[in-house]
Amino acid sequence: MKQTQAQLDAHKKYLASLDEFKIRTEKGKKDVYKEQAAYRGLSLNSYVISLIERDGYRIEREQLRRAAVEKVLEKQDK
Fold first, then answer.
1. Is the pTM here over 0.70, yes or no?
2. What are the CA-CA distances from residue 41 to residues 15, 38, 46 (Å)?
3. Residue 8 in contact with residue 19, Cβ under 8 Å?
C-alpha cells in the first residue's frame, strides 16, 4: 500500500525531531550486540540507548555521593 503525502510528511517531520549518530565496531560484533538486545526483548537501538541512559544514571548517583562526602568533610574541617 502506497503512503499518502500526509504520511510521508508526518514521517519526515518525525525524523527531523530526532538526533542520529553512528557507532563503528569490529566486523561481526553487530550481530553479537543484536543477539544481546533480542535476549532483553529490545531492538539494537533501544538496547544501546538503555545502556547509555543507565550509565548516565550511575554517573549522576556517583556525583551526588561525592558531593555528600565533600559536604561531610567540609563540616569536619570546621
1. yes
2. 24, 5, 10
3. no
Three cell numbers, residue 10: 508526518
Q: Kindly give the residue spans of alpha helices, DSSP state H, lying in the chain.
A: 5-16, 29-39, 44-77
SS3 76: helix
Residue type for 1, please?
M
Q: Locate cell 566486523: which residue?
A: 27
3-state secondary structure of 30: helix
Give the torsion through C-alpha atoms of 42, 21, 51, 62, to 10 deg: -160
pLDDT tens digits, one per residue of 54-77:
999 999 999 999 999 999 988 887
